User: Fold this.
Amino acid sequence: MIKITLPDGSIREFDEAVSGYEIAYDISPRLAKEVLSVTVNDEVWDLQRKITEDSKIKLHKWDDEEGKHAFWHSSAHLMAEALEVLYPGIKFGIGPSIENGFYYDIDLGEDRTLTDADFPKIEAKMKELAQQKNEYNRKDVTKSEAIEYFTSKGDEYKLELINDLDDGTITFYEHGNFTDLCKGPHLPSTGLIKAIKVLSLAGAYWRGDEKRKQLTRVYGITFPKQKMLEEYLVLLEEAKKRDHRKIGKELELFTFSQKVGQGLPLWLPRGAQLREGLENFLKKIQKRYGYQQVIAPHIGLKDLWVTSGHYEKYGKDSFQPITTPAEGEEFLLKPMNCPHHCEIYKHKQHSYKDLPIRYAEFGTVYRYEQSGELHGLTRVRGFTQDDAHIFCRPDQLKDEFKKVMDIISIIFDALNFKNFTAQVSLRHQTDHSKYIGSDENWEKSEAAILEAVREKDLNYVIEYDEAAFYGPKLDFMVKDALGRQWQLGTIQVDYNLPERFELEYVGSDNQKHRPVMIHRAPFGSMERFVAVLIEHTAGKFPLWLTPDQAVILPISEKYNDYAKKVLNYLNNYDIRTLIDDRNEKIGKKIRDNELKRIPYLLIVGEKEFENETVSVRIQGDGDKGAMKLDDFAELINKEVKAQTENY
Ligand SMILES: [Zn+2]
Ligand SMILES: [Zn+2]
Assistant:
């Protein structure tokens, strides 16, 4: 008798070994049609794999990450099969599922390349093979069998992967005429894959190592229904239009220079204005919540990072030490702000009455990323965190968490991120060997986080085994206007650094105690947040934040002086305004400035000059007629006030 426990706690009993598919069918035949994979205890399995002992299971449909993962990962195998038919002798690297779809890294050998023009052919072959409804069959193999197979195939990449595996843990998956080294899980059959699109190509170094061969990475996506693919492609088009790298250029927000270095963003005046707007906004809220601004240098002695543990963990793979003419003196660029803040905390003795102490800094940090990993503002080598470190007593943890959550809610609200969830990352449920700090502290802090999210009535999910080794954390995921999920703010408990830096406070018992440290960054980093904000708003920032709120467009040179007068007037009202006095037709000026997403266009000519007015045009909404200058100023100030009065 095998007992299967479902997520709701109910138990189903089976006389003999049973597969996820059979359990689903037992619940309802309709469910069996929709399930794609099954979590058995802590592992995701193929639906057909027999469960031979009492287990806890969860069935996954398309809407679950695990369901999509099985679907897309199986599709990567299908694409590999198609590629092998079309390009005999092709060799394969890895082929995982990703957030949207999957890829496979391939080596076509000498004299063969892929271009976009080959995509329809690959898609057609994939469809043909999918329609054969081939089953994905799991097969345990010994290490020597695995080596033999891929030696005969001449695939040195798979052989290298096998080399790193332990005998007894190796599985093959076969479907149709294709065999792959893989640990699964996969779909029951290729027949479930109904809609197929090969999306793009990229270069990818084998094992991410720039010294090794560059393979071709083929990206694709598949769906169980044609309609889902069509919807996705529309979304993808819209996402391309909103790409922050494209809009960043159009709006003149930031740039990169090969001479300065890859992955080091240069903020242009309008981008700097936008960033300053965000910083001032957060500073104002933080002040209300009892934060104090601090400022620390961009480098620190190597010993600082040895103490913090960062050197041991990241030293080798990151920017190398900066040496000075003085003998033996070595500095490192800071990858984090925390060690500096720990030393700030230590500048004097603290009593329990002083806590919590909240140090905030827009701290710029540097982390080495491989050039292939760099991407616009979302993956960079230097970035500014909206960082703060809270030093508190253990009994203050929950309250501090709630306060940080308030700040994050205010930000999301002000920037129109309506849809966000929190992910609570806790320890592994049973194996606690890798975590530092006492069990008692962990239990307290995990409970504090959970109570805080419940009391704040947040949508949340719990992820076990996702905590850092030094403490549990809470991450905020937002959905943007296109429904894409981004991880933004984070709050993290830390028992490690207070220990390493020997931080103390004097308790009411006159004894010395360790404070708990909280790291938090509501935006995450300014770079990443601006990128997400651009893609979320398509560059149409809220009026209070947008770099230029209005632009004055004189109809001809004759009205440039009047335009300047209007500019001075509006500047006095703190309305961020500029003049477009280029010698261009008014129609072109309107188009250009609409493209720059400036919310208000103010056209001035003879009539406006005589009546001391401006003709107002709202971006994307057309002409609104003439307005007196003070009426216009009042309109703007009212709108800004309405947007910001809650903060
Ligand atoms: Zn696989
Ligand atoms: Zn930190």
